[in-house]
Amino acid sequence: MKNRHVMRQRAPSAWMNPILPDCKYCKQHNCVKPNLTKKKSINWLFLLLGQLVGCCKLSELKYFCKHTNNHRTGAKDRVLYLTYLELCRQLNPEGPSIDEVLIGTH
């Protein structure tokens, strides 16, 4: 996390506004969003790998943070940042903890 100081615990605009796939039916560009119906059934790994976590509503991000015991108040860019950190931590448990990243001890 060498750029953590530059990010100021906020998700960059590329995370907030991900590039979406084009619709193969209507040929519209950057328009196909994941259909997230129930918070309990969101496939977070799919969203992470597709770089589509930013398509989630703030309430969905807060739901994820609640169930991973992470701080969940603040603007969407902050909650999205924490969501990405937690998803990466789950994929690499040996990496720095969220607290280490936020405090800057790692």
Automatic annotation (TrEMBL):
This is DUF7086 domain-containing protein. Residues 2-91 form the DUF7086 domain. InterPro entries: DUF7086. Pfam families: DUF7086.
